[in-house]
Specification:
This protein is α+β, with helices and mostly antiparallel strands. The protein contains 4 helices and 11 strands, in the order H-H-E-E-E-E-H-E-E-E-E-E-H-E-E.
Length: 238
């Protein structure tokens, strides 16, 4: 089933408690989307999914400083930003497909965000979620392991709650300067490779950016049709 054909209303913000039918419908929606990526969403994900659905209007943006914006015919081609150092929770998964790795990792992070942490509470959602990919030696495919990271909200930056899942690690990531370009829809190895090629065409011949590491920034949950993403190129340190 194509996630763009699914009912958009199941993931809309709803501060009111869901009834049993709405809960089942929301879980079924996520399961249908996940099945297109050969991922199984277990029943125990129902509570985190419901909480995320209720909190969609309370997402905090990861802080950054805009540096420049490059346009053509009033269309933004790409932007340059600096993201300051901060603490992130991350998971590394190495499934057969890129979309399987990020889906499995995000479900772990969702449980951490919602309650499976030393504070025993909902931590708050920040966007974007980052997926860091490494290119294989042939530069035509990805290394299997993908790092999926969640930025800790401001109130937890000094003392992040500890995860109960040993697969989740907390790390201090250093300041990074990136070129970003927006694209929409599902993210697969094929669609990401296309976006990498497009951005290299726009930038032209330059050695200013890493060629072995890229990031995919995801701004909406996997159940949202035509979700917003960005491809990030990392500027080399001088």
């Amino acid at each position: 089933m194509d996630d763009e054909l699914l009912d958009e209303n199941v993931a809309e913000d709803n501060p009111e408690p869901m009834n049993e039918e709405e809960e089942e419908r929301l879980l079924a929606h996520w399961q249908a989307v996940a099945s297109t990526h050969h991922v199984v969403v277990p029943q125990e994900m129902a509570a985190p999914i419901q909480q995320m659905a209720r909190q969609t209007q309370e997402r905090q943006p990861v802080p950054f400083v805009p540096l420049s914006c490059h346009e053509k015919n009033k269309e933004i081609l790409y932007e340059e930003r600096v993201y300051p150092a901060g603490k992130w929770a991350y998971v590394i998964k190495g499934e057969d497909l890129y979309e399987q790795s990020i889906s499995m990792a995000f479900m772990k992070l969702m449980r951490y965000i919602c309650s499976e942490n030393s504070a025993g509470r909902y931590l708050g959602m920040t966007v974007p979620i980052l997926n860091e990919i490494q290119m294989a030696k042939d530069e035509k495919s990805f290394v299997r392991d993908v790092l999926t990271a969640y930025y800790l909200p401001a109130e937890f930056q000094d003392k992040p709650p500890e995860p109960t899942d040993p697969d989740i690690q907390i790390v201090q990531r250093e300041t990074v300067r990136v070129i970003t370009r927006v694209f929409y829809g599902t993210t697969t190895e094929e669609t990401i490779m296309r976006q990498i090629s497009l951005l290299w065409e726009l930038l032209g011949s330059t050695d200013d950016f890493l060629r072995e590491t890229y990031m995919v920034a995801v701004y909406e949950n996997p159940g949202v049709p035509r979700r917003r993403n960005e491809i990030w190129f990392i500027r080399r340190e001088p």
